Every structure is written in C-alpha cells, then in structure tokens.
TrEMBL record:
Extent of the signal sequence: none
Membrane topology designation: Multi-pass membrane protein
Record-annotated membrane-spanning stretches: 7-26, 46-65, 77-94, 100-117, 138-158, 170-190, 225-246, 266-286, 298-317, 400-422
Keywords for the protein's UniProt record, in alphabetical order: Glycoprotein, Membrane, Transmembrane, Transmembrane helix
Protein's UniProt name: UNC93-like protein MFSD11
UniProt KW Transmembrane keyword: yes
A GO cellular component entry from the record: membrane
Keyword Glycoprotein annotated: yes
Cellular localization per UniProt: Membrane
Protein family membership: Belongs to the unc-93 family.
Amino acid sequence: MVERNLVNVLLLGGGFMLIFTSFQTLGNIEQTIIDSIKKDLPSFTGDGYTSLAIIYAALSLSNWVTPSVLSAIGPRLAMVIGAITYCLFMASFFVPHVALLYGCSVVLGAGAALIWTGQGMYLSQCSSGDTISRNSGIFWAMLQMSMFFGNLLVFFTFQGKTHIDETTRSIVFAVLIAVGIVGLVFLTCLRRPSTSGDAPVELSHSVEPRQAFLNAIRLFQTPRMILLSITFVYTGLSLSFFSGVYGSSIGFTNAIGTSAKQYVGLNGVFIGVGEVLGGVAFGLLGTRTTTRWGRDPIMIAGGVLHMAAYFLIYLNLPNAAPFGNTDALSYIQPPSALVAMGCSFLLGLGDACFNTQCYSMLGGVFKSQPAEAFSIFKFTQSVAAAASFVYSSYCGLHVQLLILVVLGIVGTITFCVVEFAVKRERPTLERDYEK
C-alpha cells in the first residue's frame, strides 16, 4: 500500500505541475507576446520584464507576512488561494491594459508567496529525515514537467510566425488558463499529512501571527541562514535569467533564422528535460547520496553545469539580444540553435541541482521552523529575481552573464560551508541519540 504522505506529495507535485505549465510557459513568452501586442495595439505600453519584476518584488515583500498567514489558515488553504491568483493573472492577458497587467502582477506576487511558502511547509510536514530528499526530488521532477507541455504548445502554435497574432495569442491563453484551473482542483484534494501510521499529524496553529513574523526575523539573522541566503540569491538570479531573459534573447536573435520565435518554446522544453532528469536522479538517489556524501557534491555539480552554460551562451548570442530583435552576432557565426538548446538543458539540469538541495537543506535542517525557513528562501530568491528583471532592461547579455558567474561561484561556496557544518554535527547528534 502506498504511504499516505507519498500520495500527498504526488498530488502536490501534480497540482504544481499543471499550474506552472501555465505560468512558466507564459513567463517564458511574456516579453515576446507583449512585443506582438504592442504592434497590434500601439496604445498598450506594458513591458514583460517590468511585469515580472513587479511579481517578484511583491513576492519578496509578501514573504514576511506569509508565516503569520500560514499560522492562521494553514498551508493547504494558502496554496489554494495562491493558485487562484495565478489564474487571474493569466486571464488578464485577454484584456491588454497596462494598469490591469501591473495590478494583476502585484496580486500574483502576493499569491505566489502563499503558494510557495505553503508548499515548503506542507512538503516538510509530509516528510521525515529519511524521506525529505526523496520527496523533494519527486516534487521537483513533477513540477518541472510543466516545462514540456506548455512550451510544446508554444513551439507548434508559433511555427513559422515572426508576429504572434491575436487569434494565436487567444488560443494559447485559453489553453493555459484551463490547465491552471485543473491544477487548482488538484490542490483542493490535498489531505492532512500523517505520521508513520494512519493518524494525522497535529498541525498546530498555536504560534501567534506576530510571533511567527518575529521568528522569521530572528531566523534570518542566524549565521547559517545568512550564508544560505547568498545561495538563495543566486537561484533567484538564475531563475529570472532562464525563465524570462534567455528565451527572449533566443527569439530576438534574427541570425538564428525564421524559426527563432519557435525556439523560445523549444528552449523551455529543453530546460524542462534538464530539470526533470535532475529531479528524478536526486529523488531516487537523494537519500543515499545525502547520507553517504552530503549535499555538497550535487551542489558543486550544479555550479559547474551553470558555468559551462554561461560560457557557451556568451559565445553564441549577441550582447544586445535581451532588448529586442537584433541582427548583431557573437563569436559563433551564425548563432547555433543546437548550442542554444544545449545551454537550455544545462541550465535546467544545474537548476535542479541547486533547488533540490536547497529544499533538502531547508526541510531537513530547519524542520522545526518550516514556514519561516521557506519564506526566507522565497524572499531572498524573489528579491534577486526582481532585481534581475529590472537590470535586464538596461544591462546587455554579457554583463548579466558576469553577474551570474560571480554569484554562482560565491553561492555554491556558502552552501557548502553550511553543509560541512551540518556534517560535523551529525555524528554528535547520532551519539547523543544512542545514549
């Protein structure tokens, strides 16, 4: 018989897979779509990078409130409310208006804080020290399957198009919203986590909202969390790069050919392949590798994969690619679609390394304060993502890559420092347990 908590993790992963099939696909093509809307509707002056920056800024601010909210309503209801805001944001694209776009971006940012902190808390409640790596890997692999379906839809519907017309846009939006609603239904089916038996876990709400907020502040000030926050910042920068900037840069590089817009969708598929392979590998092997070698080898592997991807992107795409259609060239002439898709795969696989190990660290080491720990994770990650989308409108591709390289190296080192400290504590804890 399948354990109840594993069923909960599968339902959780399925719900997030469907919701983010919608949102990640839309985020990947948002700047490209808005560029086409502006040509059809000159009065519309919205900007995709600005919208994404607003989302992550609102997410970062809301994360300080979410531990208090979760202490009052619990993680399951928080995730349902958050999922509704994703559907509302996607629906706003049927009525192109700047105020509506940016207003729904703010609402989505607040909802994203609820859904992600609720997810982290719920996943932690469904896991033990023995199953947290497995469950993190399973959830991450299922979540990243979202990169396949939506982006395959984009690949086929954008085929042969240099301009995304209103009919094509409407079809894509309608399908993505319908998929998001099904994901919302999945989240409403989540059950209370259970202990090793069938008895439900007592999910205490005894922590007052004000106390939950103060606990998050105190946890954020600990040396261990300060070091991890540097890693979290890097995950936010890389997230914004591969989810918004890189795909748009491929689509704007005219020298790739008439299929450049199609490759925006295919880029998301290859990122998804890397994400899913990483999630499955670390889900199946996570407990074994964490116990024997720790989390640091996987984290270092992720850093190496990302450095290789950034170097190849530097060689392949022109510096002006993030800003709009360009005829400029880089060192590989003409730019190679094959290299571009290979970099997408490396970005996805490396991101799986970083995120599965961050989830494992937070769910295992900070299990007594899951809401506070995951809210800090999403706060630092989303602040970095918001900052990245702001400077993406002004900084060329090469400067963006340099920032990613520096933060990627530093973030990998700081995570390993914390992991080494956890390893040193583990034998002591085991001896105390034996006594």
